[in-house]
Amino acid sequence: MMSKTLYLMRHGQTQFNQLHKIQGACDSPLTKKGIADAKKVGQLFQREGIEFDHAYSSTQERACDTLEQITKQPYQRLKGLKEWNFGVFEGESERLNPPVDKSVGSYGDFFVPYGGESADQVQRRVNQTLIEIMERPDNQQVLAVSHGGAIHMFVLKWVKEHKLHISNCSAMKFSYDNKAFNYEKTIEVND
C-alpha cells in the first residue's frame, strides 16, 4: 500500500490572535489578514496542483471559515480537531499562560483544575482523530484545519528531530503509513 498524505493546517489569524487573548474552546472571527492568508494558501495549493480527496475541519468557526477560503469542496466538521480547552482562562490575556514545562514541551496538566484539558488529553484526542481520518480507505490526500495548541500537541508526538513553529495559516505536510505520521515540510504564507 502506498503512503497517504495529510496537510494539517492552522486556521487564519483571528481577532483574539491579534489581541493576544487565549482562545481555545471559545471562538473569535478571522481578521481581514486571516481571510486573505487563507485565500493565498488556496491559491498556492492550486498553483502546485495539490488537490484533496477529502477535507476536514475543527467544529470551531475560525477553522471552518479558513477551510472555506481554501477550497469550495465539501468537508466534514470533527470535534476531535478542536483547540485545547483552557477552562476559565478562555478569553483572558495570553500573559496569564503558565510557563511551558520544558520536560514535556507543553503546559502539561496546568489547565485541568480550571476546567480545561491536559496536554495528554489533547494529544490523544487529536492523534486518534487524525489516525481515524487517514485509515479511511478512500482518503489518500487529506486537508485538515485545526488550531495551534492542538497541532502543537500532535507535533510533539510525531516530530522529534526539531522544533516547529506553527503560525497562522501554515500547513504541515505529513506522509502517513501503517498508523504512523512522518513530517515532510511546512508550507508558510509569504507576506
From TrEMBL:
GO molecular function: phosphatase activity
Name of one Pfam family that matches: His_Phos_1
Annotated substrate binding sites: 10-17, 62
One Gene Ontology CC term in the entry: cytoplasm
Top-level taxon: Bacteria
Protein name from the UniProt record: Histidine phosphatase family protein
Species this chain originates from: Companilactobacillus alimentarius DSM 20249
